[in-house]
Amino acid sequence: MEAADAGAAIIHLHARDPVDGRPSPSADVYMRSLLEIARSTQAVINITKSDFIYIAKADEYQCPAGQRAIYRFSTLERNGLQARLYWTSACPSCPLKKQCTTGDYRGIRRWEHEEIFERVQERLDRKPVAMTLRRCTVEHVFGTLKHWMGWTHFLTKKLEHVNTEMSLHVLAYNLKRVSRSWVLPER
User: Fold this and answer.
1) Does 15 reside within a domain?
2) Is residue 10 part of a domain?
3) Is residue 97 part of a domain?
4) Residue 98 located in a structural domain
5) In the chain, how many domains are there?
6) Distances from the Cα of 82 to the Cαs of 48, 74, 105, 168, in angstroms?
7) Pick from 39, 85, 81, 43: nearest CA to 60
8) What's the domain range around 12?
9) For the chain, what is the HEC assignment?
10) Which residues are CB-contacts of 36 (< 8 A; sequence separation ≥ 6)?
């Protein structure tokens, strides 16, 4: 709601439980939030893959409207990764179709190792301060190293040589940091 009030034309909705404020997988909570936004603003609501809940036991997704998107087939992507495709047969008559897809059906791709990303996201959701801390401590170092390397790629090839090159960059960074902490006697 605040995004629409601030002038946003497109909104991405993360439905939250009205009792405790935590993200909610409930289709009822999602629909109530969606209807409230639709009543109070002209903004377009953008439904993304993150709004679909994966149910591992059944190997299917629950869409924001509460329908089941079942596994249909697997495909080998151009990058060599295996992906599974899901969709529901309820799309043509769904009240959310306009916000969800321009096609006949909304397809969902699931990479074969996507559960790894989901576990990482769950850890970050449980401890949101961790990412803030990482930005403060690690990202600056990597940004500095990238700048020293010319914003591009490693100059060497093969993992063994790249490891050596990276180690030299880290050593140089650490030496520079230590040298700045030395206090030299005045002359």
Assistant:
1) yes
2) yes
3) no
4) no
5) 2
6) 21, 7, 21, 37
7) 85
8) 1-46
9) CHHHHCCCCEEECCCECCCCCCECCCHHHHHHHHHHHHHHCCCEEECCHHHCEEECCCCEEECCCCCEEEEEEEEECCCCCEEEEEECCCHHHCCCHHHHCCCCCCCEEEECCHHHHHHHHHHHHHCCHHHHHHHHHHHHHHHHHHHHCCCCCCCCCCHHHHHHHHHHHHHHHHHHHHHHHCCCCCC
10) 1
Per-residue pLDDT of the chain (187 residues; tens, 9 = 90+): 677 777 777 887 777 888 888 777 777 887 788 778 777 887 788 888 888 889 999 999 998 888 999 999 999 988 888 999 999 999 999 888 888 888 899 999 999 999 998 898 888 888 878 777 777 777 777 778 777 777 677 788 888 888 898 888 888 888 888 887 777 777 7
153: Cα separation from own chain's centroid: 25
Radius of gyration of the chain (CA): 24
Indicate the pairing of strand 82-87 with strand 68-76.
Answer: antiparallel
Residue type, 58: A
